[in-house]
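> Could you send the GNAT family N-acetyltransferase prediction when you get a chance?

Sure thing. Input:
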Amino acid sequence: MPTTLVIDRARAEDVAAIVALLADDVLGARREDPDDHASYLAAFEAIDADPRHVLAVARRDGRVVATLQLTILPGLSHRGATRAQVEGVRVHADERGSGVGSEMMAWAEAEARGRGAKVLQLTSDSTRGDAHRFYAGLGYAASHVGFKKRLA
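Output:
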């Protein structure tokens, strides 16, 4: 029987496990470097210091099994509506299909609502068909086309 999942704010000691999750797929394996602890810890400190960001983890028996980052975005459009952005959603391979991703997204929605957000948005790489089906199943609409440009 699976033990209870606990979702909370990530701690510095979680960074290595989070990076391992980010690197554990075809896309992440090409862009992440789990041996580069300094850059990830610096990024963690910047995220953790900013109250508009939450780097969250899901733990089962103390082990990090999923992660996501939630960012609160104030804006003028939509009558000054606050939005929330979800990034970096990852679930450990052993936990995929167990409902952890759904629980993480429900947590993000509740957290975003609690911070006054009217919309929760996310992007997903165009090659991630399984992720697209997952988000659609949770009620997210592929309503926009996203663009990205590498600056460095």
